């Protein structure tokens, strides 16, 4: 065997022996919580997500309730789960931080991240809205509990986007019933859009569909009231004019005849 080849074989053999004899990373290898916390954060920073999760999970179970590392361990555990695509576990970790430490400086951050994790689980408005509702509730909790948070603007943006998605879901359901001439069901869904999500454009669209539904079942008074509300709120909207026409001009009252 040539000398160079022999050296390569010996080097590979040495690396194999070293890999076999080295210990696998384990949280049990650390004798203090502080050392485990530092090591788990390093594993997270290097993309060793399973190791980081194992380390931070152990810390959340072992650390005393008043230890300042406990809230941080919940936070980084959530981050590790999120980076791994485990959104529900991430949301749960972030929520535990806020529930256990509502006055912690990371509490509002955790709520924002929990809401985002839930939102990722509701990808289309046509799907079951359970996770979307959880996301909306979480963002609204942040706004209610932490009115001065620097995360407020981002939470409000998420709330607006989610409300538009919920409005679309109910609007599409109403359109489905309208096409099937199930007018009563359609009216219920369109009214829900107007009542629950007045700030979205779907509220305007739902009112326009209400006009059609009322016309189909000859509810003239309801149709006229809806058109009046549309004209008042959207005076320059061309769709409103096409659907409702212009507002009727009130006739002048006849002059009274003076008594003889």
**Fraction of residues in β-strands:** under 5%
For the record, give the distance between the C-alpha atoms at the N and C termini, rounded to a whole number. 138 Å
Largest sheet: none
What is the number of independent domains?
2
CATH fold name of the largest domain: Serine Threonine Protein Phosphatase 5, Tetratricopeptide repeat
What is the H/E string?
HHHHHHHHHHHH
Indicate the radius of gyration in whole angstroms.
Answer: 31 Å
Number of strands: 0
- What class do helices, strands and sheet pairing give? mainly alpha
CATH class of the largest domain: Mainly Alpha
Overall residue-averaged pLDDT value = 88
CATH architecture assignment name of the largest domain: Alpha Horseshoe
Number of helices: 12
Low-confidence stretches: 8-22
Principal-axes geometry comes out as elongated
Q: Say which CATH homologous superfamily of the largest domain is assigned.
A: Tetratricopeptide repeat domain
Describe what this molecule looks like in 3D.
It is built from twelve helices and no strands. The protein folds into two domains: 26-150, Tetratricopeptide repeat domain (Serine Threonine Protein Phosphatase 5, Tetratricopeptide repeat); 166-246, Serine Threonine Protein Phosphatase 5, Tetratricopeptide repeat. It is mainly α and 260 residues long. The N and C termini lie far apart (138 Å). Helix 8 runs parallel beside helix 10 and helix 10 packs antiparallel against helix 11.
Topology:
Blueprint: H1 3-21, H2 33-45, H3 49-62, H4 68-83, H5 87-100, H6 107-120, H7 130-145, H8 152-179, H9 183-196, H10 201-216, H11 220-233, H12 238-244
